[in-house]
Every structure is written in C-alpha cells, then in structure tokens.
Specification:
With 95 residues, the protein is mostly helical. 37% of the residues lie in helices and 4% in strands. The chain has a domain of 39 residues. The chain has a two-stranded antiparallel ribbon. The radius of gyration is 28 Å and the shape is flat.
Amino acid sequence: MKSDQVRHIATLARIGVEEHELADYAQHLSDLIHLIDQINAVDTKDVEPLYHPLESHLDLRDDEVTSKNAREVLMKNAPAAEDGLFLVPKVIEEA
C-alpha cells in the first residue's frame, strides 16, 4: 500500500494522520491485507460452520410468572410518581 492511499483512506475516515506516520501505516495495512489474503487462501469448503467454539446446549425452562406484581410497594419508594410511573427530572432540553 502506498502513502497516498493511506492519506486518502485517512481522509475518508476523517482520521488525522501525520505525514511522518504515513509510511508506518502503509506497512501495517499492507501486512494486514497480506494476512487476510492468507486466510482467504485456506480451503474451507468441507468445514462445517461452527456457531460456538464450545458445544453447549441451553436448558430452556417454561415461561412462567415467578413473582407477583409489586408496583404499589415499589412506587412507595419513588420520590415522585404519577399514574403508576416514576417521574424523573428532565435531562434533555428542547432546541
């Protein structure tokens, strides 16, 4: 990769790159592209997809209500509430 290509990529990405850093970035990006080319060269057509490196199974449970509605008890702790909802200070100002 050339320095002018790195400068162009940095401009597109809105990344500030100093002129003296361009050669290093060009080398690092070239190394990365070379690594990606090596990975892409590996024949994986007979390899089964792996969703997770460890074979694990989730034990699913029935979807049951395990606690009762405690809204009234919880609302007693609220410094401000209205119609069963917590009232909070406004934090975003309208333009």
